[in-house]
Amino acid sequence: MEMRSVIKPNRVASRLLHRAAEEAAMREHFVWVTTRRIKPGALEEFERAWRPDPYPPGLRQAYAYWSEDGLEITGVSFWNTRASCDAWRTSEAETRRRQAMAPYVVEEREGFYQGRELGIPVR
């Protein structure tokens, strides 16, 4: 019977893989954040008006967060590039969407951000 030794991963290769994974996690993000206060009782109607049609090219992910009282909504969208976000923000479709939301909105704040994901060490 032939005995085979167990091959342990090369430490250098292991470090390179770890570094590549960290760099992938640190890719740059382009983020548009909008927070709106809406009229009481308008959450359901606002949510219908809020959904874009068509969905914008270059949009990677989008999240919506509501306050417990349903009067404040924060939308966070991740884009491929700043240019794709800017193109959507100035598009006719986005203008129509904002007009549809307007009857329900009391106040609006927005900002465009660039950033990176923070790597959390494995425990």
From TrEMBL:
<protein>
    <recommendedName>
        <fullName>ABM domain-containing protein</fullName>
    </recommendedName>
</protein>
<dbReference type="InterPro" id="IPR011008">
    <property type="entry name" value="Dimeric_a/b-barrel"/>
</dbReference>
